[in-house]
Amino acid sequence: MDKKVVVFSQLNREILTQLEQKYEVAVVDPRQGDVNQQILKLVENADGMIGAGRLLNETNLHTAERLKVISSVSVGYDNYDLNYLNSKKIWLCNTPHVLTETTADLAFTLILSAARRVPELDRWTKGGQWKRTVATAQFGQDIHAKTLGIIGLGNIGAALAKRGHYGFGMNILYHNRHEKPESAQVFNAQYCTLPELLKKSDFIVVAVDLNTDSKALIGKDEFALMQPHAVFVNIARGSVVDENALVQALKTEQIFAAGLDVYASEPLQESELFDLSNVVTLPHIGSATAETRKKMAQLAYDNLVSVLDGTLPEATVNPLFSHN
Ligand code: NAP
After folding, report:
1. CATH number, residue 301
2. Per-residue tens of pLDDT for the chain, all 324 residues
3. 120 in the same domain as 34
4. How does DSSP classify residue 45?
5. Is 179 a catalytic residue?
6. Residues 6+ positions from 258 with CB-CB distance below 8 Å
7. Among 72, 156, 263, 293, which is best to mutate for testing ligand 1, by the most ligand atoms less than 8 A from CB?
8. 207 lines ligand 1 (CB under 6 A)
9. Cβ(151) to ligand 1 under 6 A?
10. Residue 277 is part of which domain span?
């Protein structure tokens, strides 16, 4: 075992065993103190890293002398300083596609839950408040045949459009930086500017990757354009949305409801959102099913092994340099 791999978050047990059979493995353990200090020490002589959910940049990687690859168990790669990794010729791999359908399922779960007020009315029922037939105070919004506006018609956005179009007979609008005519045609989706989409949609779902253009994409002005019955869903990244503006929009009933899986700061321990009944808050579980997390871990493992074996990984974020 001449190569060393650092595992920087929890990893599927079977994949960890596969790693241990092939490499010297060191696991970062938050119970053992400061995580960044552990990383600085462990990466000194590491060849690869695998994991998710940690900020990795020059601050905690500068001691790495022979690091060749960071294999992220996620599709989003906003946690990594790509410029720094490029400058050091460190490959960054991710896990697209294998989580697309599962995350789209979750996005639709949020649409349904927020529109039909599922968690709120579940608490209401269990709290013994169901004393007579429900009335307008408990009514929600229809979903079928409404207009679904998707911001970011990428892999997950398209899987969501499929559910809306074929499953619920919804009219699909989308907004991207570049039009996607081929993908759009499948769902009869219509391209809109962002303001147009916000004004016309009954349901608005954010499914962009976090980048310099999408940071704070939805704020006060954007909520002001939405219809009072609109349901807003974010499964992308928290920083795409101005959370204070969202809280205000929900408090003042500028929009009907929201469904959130992601937040500017995670894990979310305290938030004004927790005091509001018209928002469904989930703990970043878009891809969190047993099957999909296993597939993601396997793909991340395969990517890591490919780079360390000197072959091309299946999914890379920065395929800029050749092996040497
Ligand atoms: P993807 O296929 O790369 O799709 C992202 C789409 O966003 C692209 O079509 C891109 O198109 C569009 N986009 C980027 N910036 C934009 C902007 N400023 N305005 C409008 N559109 C923009 O990625 P994916 O696999 O669908 O995943 C999307 C993101 O979802 C990931 O990056 C990740 O952050 C998040 N995610 C969350 C979970 C979860 O657990 N909640 C799970 C998986 C993924 P253009 O470049 O043409 O604009």
Report:
1. 3.40.50.720
2. 689 999 999 999 999 999 999 999 999 999 999 999 999 999 999 999 999 999 999 999 999 999 999 999 999 999 999 999 999 999 999 999 999 999 999 999 999 999 999 999 999 999 999 999 999 999 999 999 999 999 999 999 999 999 999 999 999 999 999 999 999 999 999 999 999 999 999 999 999 999 999 999 999 999 999 999 999 999 999 999 999 999 999 999 999 999 999 999 999 999 999 999 999 999 999 999 999 999 999 999 999 999 999 999 999 998 766 554
3. no
4. G
5. no
6. 114, 231, 232, 233, 234, 246, 249, 250, 278, 279, 280
7. 156
8. yes
9. yes
10. 100-281
